[in-house]
Amino acid sequence: MSRKTKRKHVFKEVLEDDMSLPADHQTIVRILSTKGNNLHEVLAPDQSTFLVSMPTKFRKNVWVKRGNYVLVEPIEEGDKVKAEIVRILTNEHIKYFKEDNVWPAEFDEKKKSCDGADDDLLVNTNRLHLIASSEESGSDSDESEDYSDDDVKK
C-alpha cells in the first residue's frame, strides 16, 4: 500500500466519528509531553504519569500535542511503557463522553472568571519589561537627547 493510500485510510479512521464509549479496560488520559521514539508521557485521572506508545498506523500520519486527550489500552510487554494509544479524542468525542458521564471529573476544565485573571497571565520572557514608577516618568524629558542630522548620518 502506498504512503498516500495509507494516510488516506488513517485519516478516515481518525476523523470518522466513532462515538463508541470506552471499554472497561480502556482509559482516557491527557498528553503531558513527548519523549521521542513515538512515546508520550500522559497523566491518568488518578494523577499518575506513565509512558504510552503511538501505534505504527498513526506514526508520521497523525500528531498529538501537549494537552490533547487520547484513549489508551494497557499492554503487558513493557516495564516503562504501560499502554498504547487506541484513539485520539476530538472535541466531539469529549462532548459526547461528558453527556454520557464517562468523562473523568479530574479532567473537567474550570473556566476562570475575569476577576483577578491578570495574576494568572504568563510573562512573555522574549520582551524586556521595564517597570517605571511615577517619579521616574517625570524625568524622561530631561534625559532625552536631541540628535542633529550630522550625528544620525555617522
TrEMBL record:
<dbReference type="GO" id="GO:0003743">
    <property type="term" value="F:translation initiation factor activity"/>
</dbReference>
<keyword id="KW-0694">RNA-binding</keyword>
<comment type="similarity">
    <text>Belongs to the EIF1AD family.</text>
</comment>
<keyword id="KW-0648">Protein biosynthesis</keyword>
<dbReference type="GO" id="GO:0003723">
    <property type="term" value="F:RNA binding"/>
</dbReference>
<dbReference type="GO" id="GO:0005634">
    <property type="term" value="C:nucleus"/>
</dbReference>
<protein>
    <recommendedName>
        <fullName>Probable RNA-binding protein EIF1AD</fullName>
    </recommendedName>
</protein>
<feature type="domain" description="S1-like">
    <location>
        <begin position="5"/>
        <end position="90"/>
    </location>
</feature>
<keyword id="KW-0396">Initiation factor</keyword>
<dbReference type="InterPro" id="IPR039294">
    <property type="entry name" value="EIF1AD"/>
</dbReference>
<dbReference type="InterPro" id="IPR006196">
    <property type="entry name" value="RNA-binding_domain_S1_IF1"/>
</dbReference>
<dbReference type="Pfam" id="PF01176">
    <property type="entry name" value="eIF-1a"/>
</dbReference>
<feature type="region of interest" description="Disordered">
    <location>
        <begin position="132"/>
        <end position="154"/>
    </location>
</feature>
<dbReference type="InterPro" id="IPR001253">
    <property type="entry name" value="TIF_eIF-1A"/>
</dbReference>
<feature type="compositionally biased region" description="Acidic residues">
    <location>
        <begin position="137"/>
        <end position="154"/>
    </location>
</feature>
<dbReference type="InterPro" id="IPR012340">
    <property type="entry name" value="NA-bd_OB-fold"/>
</dbReference>
